[in-house]
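#struct-help
A.M.: can someone run this one for me? Single chain, 118 residues.
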Amino acid sequence: MSLFDYAPGSAGASPPEGPQVDPALARLKTTAGRLRRRFVVTNGISAGMLLLVSLTFGDTLADRVAGPLSLGLVLFMVVGTVLAVSSVQYDRGCRAHSDPQAAAWRAQRTVPSGEEGW
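D.P.: on it. Structure tokens below:
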């Protein structure tokens, strides 16, 4: 039991009907979850493909492609590039979608300038 919950059997105190969810906060959580899922799926697929290729072809990944670069190293660099590009896209998505929603939600929640907080 939380410190802020109503004590069981207390006179005149009844708990609220259900959890009150702010619609703006719910939209923000949905947007952040969608961006996070896209980031994780993109990087998971690229890492899974590298693992699948390395398990399938085995020693073929040690073949030289150009100079000191082997096929495995090239594939690893591709996965690193996908990770870098997807993290930049995740950051841009957060800035474009989540940040404006968070700013609007914070503006709703701010205390007017004439009132004191705690």
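A.M.: thanks! The CA atoms of residues 61 and 71 lie 5 Å apart.
D.P.: also worth noting: The chain has a mean pLDDT of 80.
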